[in-house]
Amino acid sequence: MSTDSTETPRFRLGFLTHVQGRGSDLTTTYRNAQELFVVAEELGFDVGWVAQHHVPDGGGGLSSPWTFLAHAAARTTRIRLGTAITILPLEDPVRLAEDVAVVDTLSGGRVEIGVGSGYSDVEYAAFGRDLERKRELTSENLAVLRQALAAEEVGTPGFRIQPQPAGFGDRIWQGVFSGPGAAYAAGEGSNLLLNRAAYGYDAPTDEVQRPWADEFLGAWQQPRRPRVGLSRFVFPAADRRTALAQIADDVTAAATRMAAGRGLPAVADVEDALRRFHAFYGHPEEIVLALQREQVLPVATDLITQFNPAVPDHDAAIRALELIATEVAHALGWKPVTERQLAGV
Predict the structure, then answer these.
(1) Phi, psi angle pair for 111, to nearest 5°
(2) Does domain 12-241+278-343 have CATH number 3.20.20.30?
(3) Nearest to 18 by CA among 52, 42, 46
(4) Per-residue pLDDT reduced to its tens digit, 181-210
(5) Where does the record place the Luciferase-like domain (predicted)?
(6) How far, in Å, are 68, 83, 111 from residue 162 at the CA level?
(7) Domain ranges in the chain?
(8) What is the number of helices (H) and of strands (E) in the chain?
(9) pTM metric for this prediction
(10) Residue 224 — φ and ψ, nearest 5°?
């Protein structure tokens, strides 16, 4: 595959952190997560994403993503800052729009906002929301959020949020888990976010999700280019054994919890656990070959790499980001921002 520096990159490269750590030292966990944004910017990553979780059992430690991203904005100058996802039914959409607009202003217009419905009955109960109405609440709140981020009146005549937002028409993403959901997102003019794995299906995740992406693209009616964000578990290391030492226990434990919680078959072994998370791991060349067979990647505009549910050592996480940028993504046709700038792309 050609990597001529004059070519436009096939996709934007992102990383997603769920802001997880080991033990109770959340200060270190948050500091390390912030450091990943700094390192990723230096490596040329295009976007840094965070996931919102109100309870740790959901797979992450960040309840207030926009506060976190405001701090990341102060530590970086170029990398874009996004959520994948903000749990929209649990938010007041007007207040959320205000937070988004503030971070966007502080960052110089670098915000991307991904929203979704979430799934935790505990989170919905804590916020006094009805889990059975999650899709309806998502649609209602998204309509208000769009109005607010378009600088339109919301809530009452004459009220518009401040600071005045600008240019959010192509920066709103929706996480979906079905073909109809993907078509609905396209009808709303949202970009598409696909999860790292399609849980509960016997078929491989990319075989399940490719029809969803195709439904999204087929339903797209906007004049601008549709955008498809593909989240994938990618953990490169010196070899598979080294990678497994960092990720195997966490992935197996997470797959076991998920199987029990969703009534799925028991996890057979670590390979089964990694398969359920559609994991790409091992030497960079192995990962490149596997991703070249990935069925959704050819239509993706954004490749969003993550380590969750694994919680690798901080040094191992930084090394994995380096390998993703310099060996994996580059071999797939991506170029770091600095190289594109020099080439005038």
Answers:
(1) -85, 140
(2) yes
(3) 52
(4) 999 999 999 999 999 999 889 899 999 999
(5) 16-291
(6) 20, 20, 16
(7) 12-241+278-343
(8) 13, 9
(9) 0.95
(10) -85, 165
